[in-house]
Design a protein that fits this description.
Layout (H helix, E strand, L loop, with lengths): L4 E4 L3 H13 L7 E5 L3 E3 L4 H6 L4 H4 E3 H4 L5 E5 L2 E5 L4 E4 L4 E3 L2 E4 L3 E3 L7 H4 L1 E2 L3 H19 L8 E5 L3 H19 L9 E6 L10 H13 L2 E5 L3 E5 L2 E4 L4 E3 L2 E4 L3 E3 L1 H4 L5 E2 L2 E3 L12 E3 L4 E2 L12 H20 L12 E5 L5 E5 L4 E4 L1 H24 L2
Helix pairs in contact: 1-10, 1-11
This protein binds nicotinamide-adenine-dinucleotide (NAD).
Length: 392
């Protein structure tokens, strides 16, 4: 039987699904169409580094043509307009329609703005290589303007949200901004780099000693924290906080959280907390011919709450979905998804980091945490190369 597999999204979940299917099934047996917004597989866990300009774009944006070369995957570059699960088809933004027998939804998530007035219009998000480049260009323009005698706000940067994205971003900027200033004859002390966090602590979920360590490491490099202060509104360059104060900032980077992908929420498949509700083997609970991988799915943990989205989960889900597409094709038993948590690693710039690793959540800090983060990036790259070698 020849079954058309359509995969939406070539992030961690989608790419790993495609490579894993090809480990088991040849192109003649299971034609795959992979749809992605851009022609690259983006290593989004390192976007903060591209924002600060200490990594090359080519290291984070891997051409899909190359990653899938010879694998018989029909690559379509473009957006997904809608999923019509009852008609078993997908509409692309350029107008074409793809019919499927099995659909894999791996579209990721999108930035949540929580209805905060003016936030969407006046901030940068950090979800893609394009976003990271835009932020960097913008900060450089603002610094050029400041060097020419522009407004003080031009030298002020606010990163909203003190979760992993926000903290990794301020850490990288704190390291690199002094060099950007020196190159423009700006006194580095005139830069104001803020992190604004609504809850009572940055890095929610991390042990308090690591939170304290992260905060002091960043403060020592000039980061100004506003903790326990939600951003409540943004008017142009004025960032308003919960206590009635305001920060004038030429750049606002919004890292305040993510929500389900709008194409998934509008598709009519069953949702839980804005993401696709899935069975133990990662099929949509309402549409068994749809598998879901990565941030698009809500996988419920033992505590009854969805696991927080992460690259390591997306990668593992892609492999389970890839195997399960093959198993369903062969009429074999599907595998339940059993996530393995290796830990959480937060870089605080190039020379510092904090992490909790292993089953016992062992705390790590400094060089050990930084080295673990580098090692986990390399492990991912060697893993996809290994899968490529195994795939038909
Ligand atoms: P997040 O939801 O984890 O953190 C967002 C933070 O913004 C929270 O601390 C929240 O209190 C704060 N916030 C919300 N509204 C606010 C407001 N109005 N004003 C100020 N602060 C506000 O989002 P994230 O950091 O983008 O991470 C998203 C997911 O990706 C998480 O599950 C995270 O674990 C994962 N992630 C992992 C890594 C890593 O493993 N190194 C890196 C980045 C992201």
């Amino acid at each position: 039987m020849n079954r058309r597999v359509v995969i939406l999204g070539a992030g961690y979940g989608g790419l790993l699904t495609a490579l894993t299917i090809r480990k088991h099934l040849r192109a003649e047996e299971a034609p795959i169409t992979l749809v992605n917004r851009v022609p690259t597989h983006q290593l989004v866990t390192e976007l903060h580094r591209l924002t600060a300009g200490n990594i090359r774009e080519q290291a984070l944006a891997l051409p899909l043509e190359k990653l899938l070369k010879g694998k018989g995957v029909d690559l379509r570059i473009g957006g997904v307009e809608s999923i019509e699960p009852d008609l078993k088809r997908v509409r692309l933004t350029e107008g074409s329609v793809l019919a499927y027998d099995t659909l894999v939804v791996a579209l990721g998530s999108e930035t949540a703005f929580f209805g905060i007035p003016g936030l969407r219009e006046n901030s940068f998000t950090l979800k893609s290589v394009e976003d990271a480049k835009r932020i960097r260009e913008h900060i450089e323009e603002k610094l050029d303007s400041f060097a020419r005698g522009g407004r003080e706000a031009d030298a002020s940067i606010v990163v909203g949200g003190g979760g992993l994205t926000g903290i990794e971003t301020v850490g990288e900027l704190a390291d690199e901004l002094p060099a950007w200033c020196r190159g423009r004859g700006i006194e580095p002390g005139s830069i104001r780099l803020y992190n604004v966090e609504a809850s009572s602590s940055i890095l929610p979920g991390f042990p308090s000693e690591l939170v304290a360590r992260a905060q002091s490491s960043l403060e020592n490099r000039g980061v100004r924290f506003r903790i326990g202060q939600p951003i409540t509104a943004v008017e142009g360059s004025t960032v308003r906080l919960g206590d009635g104060s305001a920060i004038e900032a030429g750049t606002l980077i919004w890292c305040g959280g993510v929500q389900g992908h709008p194409v998934v929420t509008a598709s009519g498949i069953e949702l839980v907390r804005g993401r696709a509700a899935v069975t133990a083997d990662l099929r949509s609970v309402s549409h068994p011919d749809i598998f879901v991988a990565g941030d698009s799915a809500a996988v419920i943990g033992e505590d009854g709450r969805p696991y927080p989205p992460s690259a390591q989960l997306a990668w593992q889900m892609g492999e389970t979905v890839g195997y399960n597409v093959f198993a369903s094709y062969r009429g074999a038993d599907l595998q339940p998804f059993r996530p393995v948590f290796s830990g959480t690693l937060a870089s605080l710039g190039r020379k510092d980091g904090v992490a909790v690793v292993g089953a016992r959540l062992t705390p790590l800090k400094g060089f050990a945490a930084t080295a673990m983060k580098e090692a986990s990036n390399l492990r991912y790259l060697s893993h996809i190369k290994g899968l490529f070698a195994l795939a038909y």
